Amino acid sequence: LLAPLAALTSAILIALIIWVSRQRMSPRSELQLGLKRNEFIAVYQPIIELASGRCIGAEALARWHRPGGAAISPDVFIPLAEDNNLIEQLTERIIRVSAGELGPLLRGNKDLHISINLSSADMASGHFLRVLQEVLPQAGIAPAQIWLEATERSFIDVERARTILDQARARGHPVAIDDFGTGYSNLSLLEALPLDTLKIDKSFVAAIGQDASTSVVVAHIISMANNLGLAIVAEGVETREQESYLVHAQARYAQGWLYARPMSAEKFTSFLQDNARTDAQTLTPAPGTV
Ligand code: C2E
Ligand code: MG
Ligand code: MG
Ligand code: MG
What we know:
The chain has 290 residues and is an alpha/beta fold. The chain has twelve helices and eight strands. The N and C termini lie far apart (80 Å). 34% of the residues are buried. The mean pLDDT is 92. Bound molecules: ligand C2E and magnesium ion (MG) (3 copies). Ligand C2E binds next to strand 2, helix 3, helix 4, strand 3 and strand 5. This is cyclic-guanylate-specific phosphodiesterase.
């Protein structure tokens, strides 16, 4: 009886020591430990073509699964990782996880893409390009299937950013400017940088139907982007009202809770199957019609 009791006591003690030491850890050590233990995972939020309802891909979004710890939002741990020089490791992790989990899906459907978020340190070093160069051929994923999302804030050094993005596009990666409208010097950036896609920040989409002047700004951003030859993704679409406004304003793609929340790779796989089925139904004429 004593032996199992001793084992149990020591197990409890060890767990307690781990718990206490985590409480005393600095954010940097905790992030480092989380990276080492693969606690960062990716969830995927579908991106929908408004005209057809077809899912054209998904944005990979980082989540931190800390065993025993409270959930921490990306709005908290991403800036922490940025401030502690760990964001490049996190970007690498998200690229590797996404390619691993969605590789089979992407190999089977060359029209499908995954969007990866980049921070200013990524834009400065270009380390993610080396990671992609290693990972994608192994996974059988075409560069055109990995879109890159960079926020206005990540373009601290515009010249450097241009060099990195030129390299990325030369390899075949489409580039999106993310959270458009939340930073400053928006318009000059659109001219200065090699871009394919513009993502309208969800704060603008939320104003549709709520705030008349901001709604007009949204329509103008979309028309400007269309004139510049940029594809538009509206993020944070939650209502049919927002959707129809965006359709009228001629936005091409949308992403938001109206369509789907971010989900696991497994759920995304079945989401795609359902999406292809409804897509086929709407596109196939009913019997008797030609
Ligand atoms: P983001 O890149 O603009 O991603 C869109 C955010 O909007 C996500 O928040 C998503 O969950 C949320 N969202 C999507 N649809 C809706 C909607 O209909 N309503 C509302 N209210 N929210 C919606 P999330 O996942 O919390 O991520 C927050 C931010 O953290 C991201 O904003 C991105 O800037 C950053 N982030 C997330 N993962 C990564 C990553 O792997 N690397 C980097 N560098 N940043 C990341
Ligand atoms: Mg993004
Ligand atoms: Mg965004
Ligand atoms: Mg945003």
